[in-house]
Amino acid sequence: MTGVLAAVDGNVTAIGYGLAAIGPGIGIGIIFGQGVNAIARQPELTGVIRTNMLLGFVLTEALALIGLVAPFIFKSV
Q1: Which of 14, 50, 53, 70 is the 20 to 30 A CA-CA neighbour of 59?
Q2: Rounded CA gap, 33 and 40, in Å?
């Protein structure tokens, strides 16, 4: 069992980032799905909905980028 953990030791950050990317991926899907639904219901508010949708996308994507950079920052500490 310890041999398997030693073999996986170098890839723990990659596995952790893969798991951390699931949340933002689901969030982005929800944002765009609900945005399209809102535009279909009220086409006159397309500009406002699109702006809010893109703002939500940017903030959610920032979480994924922080998850990518965090292992490198904490590895040096």
Answers
A1: 14
A2: 11
